[in-house]
Please model this.
Amino acid sequence: MANELKVTLKKSQIGRPEKHRRILVCLKLTKTNKSIRVKDTPEIRGMIKKVSHLVEVEDIN
Model:
């Protein structure tokens, strides 16, 4: 079974660059304190790295 990540949006996307907002929409993080579970892939890790100052990440086994 693949590892999963729990990603939570901790800061608002208001006033952020368009690129950051598009990444959050792709991750389906539309509201503050909303959490999602995603598979741990290099693509997802790259997206999270771009908006790391806005989200909190936890590893789920």
Remarks:
- The beta strands are 4-9, 35-39, 55-60.
